Amino acid sequence: MNLQTDIDLQPYNTLAVPARGAYYAEVTEREQLPELLRFARDEALPLLVLGGGSNIVLERDFPGLVLHIRLTGKTLLTEDRHHYWLKVAAGENWHELVQFTLEHGYWGLENLSLIPGSVGAAPIQNIGAYGVELKDVFERLEAVDVASGELVEFNADECAFGYRDSLFKRGGRDRYIIVSVTLRLLRQPHLKVTYPSLREALQSIPVEALTPKDVGRAVCTVRQSKLPDPMTIPNVGSFFKNPLVGLDQFMELQMRHPGLVSYPIDARHVKLAAGWLIERAGWKGVQRGSVAVHSEQALVLTNPGRASGAEVLALAEEIRHSIAAEYGVDLEAEPRVYP
Ligand code: FAD
Ligand code: NAP
After folding, report:
1. Of 46, 164, 279, 281, which residue is least crowded by CB atoms under 10 Å?
2. Which of 3.40.50.300, 3.40.50.2300, 3.30.43.10, 3.50.40.10 is the CATH number of 4-69?
3. What is the pLDDT of residues 138-152, one digit of tens each?
């Protein structure tokens, strides 16, 4: 089974919080999973399915079994006049996959360049950036059912993708280990450059000459200019989801805060930019011990001093209370917290 015990998890979470895992196994073959799952069940151990560790907060030592998903491989399953279907193992690095697709002329992932983490984690929160979400290119996934050890498949409807959300954050939470994701990519580019920062970064290229590679490069440039690199400044990206509010609450908030940054979602809901709310409430650059609100983007909490998960969560809680008091809006943490 290749089990390790009492392992240091600090190198395996991009927030770099100090924590230890009671048991740890690297999963390089899907066939290892049934035995590992039986062991966890027999010993009544909780599971932590780990990819790149870029969207988790470990509040303390983890008393169970950490399954580090390291499955690799990419297969072009089939193609037609419009699409390529690419099956990718869950342990592949997401950004390396994006680069691979851009090199091969499989279009659609360019806006999702430079998102840290693994392919297997991408469906968990339906990763998204610059107006594109995983669900836009998703065909299906394969997962191992934790209870039975059996392989099961999910199509897009069954994944119930939402805004930074899916079945795997709700009813399916902790019930499945994703082992592969099949993407449906385009032969002809369909570029999406609606975000102002992206448009600005691309303004020197005439629209008709733009290529997916240009967009991918611009996304990387913009991200590198405002997001801290977790390798040097530990963080988990956006700490809070952008809240969706009803129209009545939105109109009332807009009257009180005329500069409110918002985007319509559907006829009844509006998305508020959580970063704007946090910045306006005075949190940008604030430091508590060695945890800080990033000075370029208030939605990101950084942990340069490698403080504990509990310290990071304490600052997040202070911010949450402050936003609820100031705007009556409830912020929800985006990363998964392991208490
Ligand atoms: P982990 O942190 O390892 O795991 C996250 C959750 O998924 C955990 O609950 C874990 O159990 C579960 N999980 C992981 N792998 C599997 C699997 N194979 N099967 C079942 N469950 C699994 N996110 C965005 O959506 N858009 C962004 O633009 C974005 N930018 C970011 C920028 C920075 C600097 C950072 C640090 C993070 C950013 N994120 C972003 C968040 C994060 O990168 C994504 O959520 C990513 O998909 C997490 O991948 P991971 O492999 O690191 O997941
Ligand atoms: P930004 O471009 O400065 O935009 C600020 C906020 O406004 C974002 O939250 C974005 O929502 C929203 N927004 C901007 N233009 C929009 C448009 N045309 N239509 C709808 N919504 C719009 O944001 P940023 O911080 O630099 O991040 C850029 C992109 O990378 C965003 O999509 C963001 O979600 C993503 N990102 C995510 C994480 C993470 O950890 N989840 C971390 C870093 C960056 P959305 O967030 O809904 O797109």
Report:
1. 46
2. 3.30.43.10
3. 999 999 999 999 999
